[in-house]
Amino acid sequence: xxxxxxxxxxxxxxxxxxxxxxxxxxxxxxxxxxxxxxxxxxxxxxxxxxxxxxxxxxxxxxxxxxxxxxxxxxxxxxxxxxxxxxxxxxxxxxxxxxxxxxxxxxxxxxxxxxxxxxxxxxxxxxxxxxxxxxxxxxxxxxxxxxxxxxxxxxxxxxxxxxxxxxxxxxxxxxxxxxxxxxxxxxxxxxxxxxxxxxxxxxxxxxxxxxxxxxxxxxxxxxxxxxxxxxxxxxxxxxxxxxxxxxxxxxxxxxxxxxxxxxxxxxxxxxxxxxxxxxxxxxxxxxxxxxxxxxxxxxxxxxxxxxxxxxxxxxxxxxxxxxxxxxxxxxxxxxxxxxxxxxxxxxxxxxxxxxxxxxxxxxxxxxxxxxxxxxxxxxxxxxxxxxxxxxxxxxxxxxxxxxxxxxxxxxxxxxxxxxxxxxxxxxxxxxxxxxxxxxxxxxxxxxxxxxxxxxxxxxxxxxxxxxxxxxxxxxxxxxxxxxxxxxxxxxxxxxxxxxxxxxxxxxxxx
Length: 509
Description:
It is globular, with a radius of gyration of 25 Å. Helix content is 21%, strand content 27%. A hairpin with a 2-residue loop joins strand 21 and strand 22. Strands 1, 18, 19, 20, 21, 22 and 23 form a seven-stranded mixed sheet that branches. Strands 11, 12, 13, 14, 15, 16 and 17 form a seven-stranded mixed sheet that branches. Strands 5-10-8-9 form a four-stranded antiparallel sheet, with helices on both faces. The protein has 509 residues and is α+β, with helices and mostly antiparallel strands. The protein has 14 helices and 29 strands.
């Protein structure tokens, strides 16, 4: 793999309005935010900590606080996320004076309960760090004061119930829905002003429409569309915005009761708090080094938006990279399950080289890349489970060392019948080396493939009644296109396929 010119080794970190250079100290952590393991809890306390709050309300409940942090590009939030050796939870430390963290209400010694409405007290520390780093410029924290937290832990209080009670039992997270226009039917939803409430709008969807398939439901409140808050727009301006959208719109919606919970808590409803529906998601590319290497170049480029990105370029025909599904211009997000968006170019190259003969790259195509840039989010924010799962397994494509081997597990071929939707069948194909077959590389949320039961990693055995185990990727794709609007696939999970190949069990549904 070639190496393109990268950035220098010096790292400039911004604390509030002050620009200073730092040297990495694993005891103290790296700002915004990072891991710091202290041998002694006293090392994590700050002499300027305010006195602890009153631990409980009269009814005995502990009282968490909401902290909203909004930073500018190239600035840090101005705090350190730390952990105490042998202790549970995540500690807020070294809150910089006049920083976004301090202005948002964070205090030294606070304990982090939720990040953007997701409970994290029992989540591994490095995963919490990844989640925060993927959130972009806005963070919503739910925290407990240090003394309150210690008392709650000693008393055996269920902190997740405390967090849930704070927002209300019936409060649901907002939904971020990506809708693609059908050439004949359009989007299939309308925007309706809420009577008597200026700047408030609800949506109404048609049954079976692209909007409904993307997760939109009639009666939901419209909060945001294509990056614009609807509260400041007139009804006619919203209709014009939708009409001008070339072939897709992305909307943020929430049900009425949950909207009331956010209003009561004086919280903005943000895309970072949402559940994703039908958004393009990153895919994992499994590469085995060939005689000429992996067959691609990693380049650091400045995109038209002005942000710096690590792009996969010059994908060689027939190379391991192309066979894994890589396309020129894909945005690299993670290497072997570890996020790399914030790393220097040279460090990413080093990690790939240190992987040896096999590496797993998490990437997203140019369409999804540009969409997330518009949203101001990392594509990893909605697929954290993928990174966690990938980090726990080997980086090679499935081999003879199979999950479930020796425990009586038997593979089960599955028939999946798909009907072409507005965005196609809703999945991407890829192929591996050494007889690993053609497999499903990515399944679009809410698409026909997901609804039919396809899963990422499934190996395609038959297409419309024809066995394709020995066919090339291009031939399999051509055969699928010949089926028109309907597609009948026989698939098996990839580990099961390897067991079948090395046994006498016939591969039949």
